[in-house]
Amino acid sequence: MPAIESGFAVLALWAVIGYLFGSLSGGMLMARAMNLGNLREIGSGNIGATNVLRTGNKKAAALTLLFDAAKGAIVVLLARAFAGEDAAQIGALAAFVGHCLPVWLNFKGGKGVATYIGILLALAWPMGLVACLIWLVMAAVTRYSSLAALVAAGWTPIVMAFTGYGHSFFLAAFLCLLIYFRHWDNIKRLKANTETKIGAKG
User: Fold this and answer.
1) 105-155 pLDDT, tens per residue?
2) How far apart are alpha carbons 22 and 94 in whole angstroms?
3) How far is Cα 32 from Cα 71, in angstroms, rounded to an integer?
4) Domain ranges of the chain
């Protein structure tokens, strides 16, 4: 029993650490540091890199993307190093939730794509590269960041299941479902052909 309780305590600790890391918003930090204004009043009102790009500051958008990906990766790598694979996956899930529902921003966060990719790169870097490649190809072809994210998130768990990375399949699949849920309004706009394309101000 003590061993079980100890194991649960370790996982709970990494869940808290993951959430706190994940709840740090790269977009809000960059907007404040570079005087970009209130992201909530720009474009879609989202705090992610795509909306930061609508300020016209490509550097801020790139740094936001890197920050939000890095925080997910850091949690996974630290948890794995200190507590093992189960803690890494729990920390990854918590970091994703923290990004989407940050306590500091009244639980109104981003959509999780950059953090998802960072998590994948740390869990199984080839799958992270697969997700990046799919996103880049879809974004280049369609100019829709949301559609690229949905396709990348949807295909990555499938690729995992058939390439020896099944240990992370369920986490990736669950995060995929959360990404689709977070993108529900985007999905409706894509169907209505009213979604904003990459680089557009609106």
Assistant:
1) 999 999 999 999 999 999 999 999 999 999 999 999 999 999 999 999 999
2) 7
3) 19
4) 2-192
In angstroms, rounded to a whole number, what is the distance separating the alpha carbons of residues 98 and 15? Answer: 10
C-alpha atoms less than 13 angstroms from C-alpha of 191 in its C-beta half-sphere: 6
Classify residue 159 as exposed, middle or buried by CB count within 10 Å of its CB (0-12, 13-18, 19+): middle
Separation CA 136–CA 128 (nearest Å): 12
Residues 82-94: pLDDT tens digits? 999 999 999 999 9
Q: What is the DSSP string of 42-104?
A: STT---SHHHHHTTT-HHHHHHHHHHHHHHHHHHHHHHHHHH-HHHHHHHHHHHHHHHHS-GG
Q: Is 17 within 8 Å of 97 (Cβ atoms)?
A: no
Residue 101 pLDDT greater than 80, yes or no: yes
> What is the torsional sign of CA 106, 199, 178, 119?
negative
User: Cα separation of 56 and 175, whole Å?
Assistant: 30
Say if CB 54 and CB 43 are below 8 A apart.
Answer: yes
* Tokens 């995992």, located at residue: 160
Q: Which of 14, 27, 34 is nearest to 68 (CA)?
A: 27
